[in-house]
Amino acid sequence: MKVLWSNTALRHLVDIYDYIARDSPRYAQRMVDRLTSGSKQVGLFPQSGEMVPEYQRPDIRELIEGPYRLIYRVEDVQVVVLAVILRYLSCGLSVH
Predict the structure, then answer these.
(1) Global model pTM greater than 0.70
(2) Structural domain boundaries of the chain?
């Protein structure tokens, strides 16, 4: 399946990079690479992530990558990455 990143998720990715890069640009790039690789995985295996507990909807799923939750929606022909947040934070997304 095709994987699209929402504007919100892209902003989250940039913010994650900027935050980590203050201490280590190399580690920041590695984390971003891990997260984008995770999005490729869900494109191949959309049901591989768990349902997001806050929603309990089969189309809203998450993949845990390090300290982050990659939250995505499975649609008919694509997967949309909605957000990338720290694991201990509630999702708080408005999903349709």
Answers:
(1) yes
(2) 2-86
